[in-house]
Amino acid sequence: MLHNLQQLLRYRPLIHSLVARELKARYRGSVLGFFWSFVNPLLLLLIYTFVFTVVLPGVHPADLEPFALFMFCGILPWTWFSSALLESSNVLIAGGNLIRKVLFPAEILPIVTVLAGLVHFGLGLPILAAFLVYYQVPVAPLDLAWFPVIVAVQLVLTLGLALMLSALTVHFRDVRDLLANLLTLWFFATPIIYALSQAPPGVRRLLNLNPFTHLAVSYQEVLFRPGPFTEWPRLLAVGAGALVTFAAGYFVFDRLRDTLAEEV
Predict the structure, then answer these.
(1) Is the distance from CB of 250 to CB of 162 less than 8 angstroms?
(2) What one-character DSSP code corresponds to residue 226?
(3) Fewer beta carbons within 10 Å, N or C terminal of the chain?
(4) What does the pLDDT look like over 28-38, one tens digit per residue?
(5) DSSP state, 76?
(6) Distance separating alpha carbons of residues 109 and 162, to the nearest angstrom
(7) Phi, psi of 204 (to 5 degrees)
C-alpha cells in the first residue's frame, strides 16, 4: 500500500493531463464552454437570492442576512463534495477500458474526478468574492488564512471516500443508488440551509458528529461572519479524521485492486 502511494507521485503529469481532459470533455460542444464554470454558480446564487428575498422573506434570523450568500458559502463546497462522490462511484466502471491495461493505475480515475471538482469549486470562488464585495461583508485577513486549510481538509476527506466508493461500486452496483439517497440525507444533516445554532441542543449534538458540519461552519465563519475563527479545533479534528479516512479508503482500494479489471 505504501509503495503504491509513493508511486502516485510519478503519475502527476498523467493526473494533470486527465484532469484537463475531464474539464474539456464536460463542456465540449457547448457554446459558452468554460464560462459555464462561472455561469452555473452565478445562476445558483441569483436563484437563492430570488427565493429568499422575494418568495420567502423573513424566514431566517436577521444575523444571517444576506441569507442567499450565507447558503452559498456552504452550497459551493457541498456541490464539489457530493458531485465528486457521485461521479467517483461510477468512474471505474465507465473507465473499464483503461483499468484493464496492466500498467494503468486505477486509483488515478477517482483522484482525477475529485481534482476536476476542485477546479470547478475554485472557478466558483470569484463569483462568491464578487458578491461578498457587493454586499459589503467584511472578511478578516487572519480568518481568511484558514481558507486553504479548510479546502485541504475537504480534499483529503473527499479523496478517501472517493477511493473507497469507486472500488466498492465495482463489486456492489447498488452503492450508486444508496449513495444518491445518503447524500440527500447528508445535505439536510449539514448546517447549510440553516445555522447550526438554530438546531435544538439534542439535534445539535448529532450534527456535530457529521464531519461536513464543521467544514460548512468553517467556510461560513471565514467567508461570511466577521470575528475570530472559533471552529479551528474542530476543523483540525476533522483533518485528522480525514487522514484516517484517506488511509482507510486507499487500503480498501488497494485490497480490491486485483479484482477490478475482471469486474468492470
Answers:
(1) no
(2) -
(3) N
(4) 666 556 666 67
(5) H
(6) 10
(7) -60, -35
Give me the sign of the Cα torsion angle 244, 250, 251, 256. Answer: positive
Q: What is the DSSP string of 56-74?
A: STTSS-GGG-SHHHHHHHH
Q: Which secondary structure element, helix H or strand E, spans residue 26, and what is its range? A: helix 12-26
Q: Which residue has the cell 449534538?
A: 205
d(CA 199, CA 184): 18
Determine the residue type at 203.
Answer: V
| Mean residue pLDDT across the chain | 85
Closest CA to 245 of 217, 203, 222, 215: 215
pLDDT in tens, 216-257: 999 999 998 777 889 999 999 999 999 999 999 999 998 888
Rounded distance, CA 32 to CA 43, Å? 14
Grid look-up 477511493 returns: 163
Q: Give the predicted TM-score (pTM) of the model.
A: 0.89
Q: What is the pLDDT of residues 206-217, one digit of tens each?
A: 999 999 999 999
Residue 231 cell numbers, joined: 471552529
